[in-house]
Amino acid sequence: MPLIDDFLLQYNIGQVLLFLFVLSVLAAIPLGSRKVLSLNAITFGLLFLVTPASMAPLPFKFLGIALLVVAPVLFVTARA
Q1: Could you please report the per-residue DSSP string of 1-47?
Q2: Of 5, 18, 56, 67, which residue is least crowded by CB atoms under 10 Å?
Q3: How far is CA 45 from CA 3, 8, 9, 55, in A?
């Protein structure tokens, strides 16, 4: 556990959430569903937005707002 703690202390919560977002998008691509991708983006947009500013810098808040604007449009335009 100390090895994992030493590794994770170098990063803030925003960077960890961004890494998890990229991994989840890569995992959802083989499903071929834009609705799944948009729901994923909405979820991470909310996570970026509600993360306290002391834990994640301001650009991650802007990323959350952008995801919350773009993802519902993607969801509405998706067919399956």
Answers
A1: -HHHHHHHTTS-HHHHHHHHHHHHHHHHGGGT-HHHHHHHHHHHHHH
A2: 5
A3: 30, 22, 23, 16
| Cα 30 from Cα 11, distance rounded (Å) | 29
**Tens-digit pLDDT profile for residues 2-51:** 887 787 778 888 898 999 999 999 999 999 899 999 999 999 999 999 99
The pTM is what? 0.84
Residues 57-71 pLDDT 10s: 899 999 999 999 999
Instruction: Spell out the domain ranges in the chain.
Output: 2-77
